[in-house]
Amino acid sequence: MTTAFGLRIMFWNANGILSSRTELQDFINKYSPDIILLQETCLRPSQNLFLAKFQCYKTDRDNQNIHKPSGGTAILIKNHLPHHHIPTPQLFYIESTIINLSLPNKDPIVIISIYIPPSSDPNFFTLDIENLMQVGPYCIFGGDFNAHNKAWGSISTTTRGKQLKQFANSAGLDVIAPPTPTRFGINSASTIDLALVKDFLFPFNISSSALRREESRSGFVQRFPCDVTPSQKDYKYAAVWIDGEHVDRLEMFLACKRLRGVTWSFVCELYASLRWLKARVSYLGNECADQLAKEAITKGDRFLLPKSLSYLKAEIKSAALSIWQDNWDNGETGRSTHDIVPTVSNKPVGWNREEIMFVTGHGPFPSYLLRFNLRAHDNCSCGEKGDPIHYATKCPFTLSWHFQTTTVSLKLQWLKNILTNSFSRTRLRLLLSFICD
């Protein structure tokens, strides 16, 4: 029998942790959390937080008001848990503190305390989350997202909430919210304290618990059992016969380990086994089916069946696409685009204006303007040749949107990777918008 080992993670917008230490200590005594993620700690660089049996890591807000500190995040973790602190990468829209949890016989888990200030841009904050996702393969983001969405219990949906939900869906993240509100105001209650998890396959429970309701403060506890206890049930077995050609598919299902969401419950409850059944020999039904199939192709009268209209349409479409493909392959223009989209299709590739300019090079680039004598040279303001690759990888004026530098031999694959990744395409649009402005 497997014994479940659990972690209790609490995250809370403290709105000034030094003035809230008493209620935090009471909460710790009552619920015994293992890890505490704090937001709006409002600590100066010279101030530290000490709690018995906990190790503290904090990230203070840059450029604070010297008279009234604000913002900031922190993580408190029990001393006995094996872990290490990870420095926070450069972020523009959110604040965070990061640790790496290394439990015995488990893959490392990155735990991030995150705070998104209400004043931050509600459209581009996902770029910072994407940056944090690169820290490790298994991530837990917990904290105050200031993102309202009806999908997780808020009474309305804001721009940031809509953007967060779209980002989570496209990035394969799960948004986890408690069933009750996490922030209480005057005649209002909302859910803005959330968890984002990436590739976290273990069952969990989540709930909210008000720390100081009269002052609109709340925190909530989240439980992530890191081991699975098999249910002690009497399983009923049912025989499922399959063609021997498809045994490999069933074996692939049995070997599958990375299942998400509700599928995990089926893995915990399902017991599958393989039985080999000879395809036809000694089974009357299979032998009869074989015999009838042979008679169908050897006996009977031949007849002519006119081709259907749908078949003729498909043939004409195929011929037209073949001619189009031949012209596209042997043309003299659009070769850079041909390298990326070598096959013609009636379906548009879905590129917007900025992406088309980047791929074709037809845009506000000195290298393009020189071809039409609209500039005397093709140099960028920094002195190097001003082509799309330069602005995307080297130009110091576009540093905020740089991609990793590529080599000439890998340029084609580099472009394909950018155009097939939704986050890279967003960064590319921001880069081109900056250049056009």
UniProtKB/TrEMBL annotation:
UniProt domain Endonuclease/exonuclease/phosphatase: residue ranges: 10-202
GO molecular function, one term: catalytic activity
PANTHER family: DOMAIN-CONTAINING PROTEIN, PUTATIVE-RELATED (PTHR33273), ENDONUCLEASE_EXONUCLEASE_PHOSPHATASE DOMAIN-CONTAINING PROTEIN (PTHR33273:SF4)
Protein's name according to its UniProt entry: Endonuclease/exonuclease/phosphatase domain-containing protein
Superkingdom of this protein's organism: Eukaryota
SUPFAM superfamilies, A to Z: DNase I-like
Coiled coil, from the record: none
Organism: Araneus ventricosus
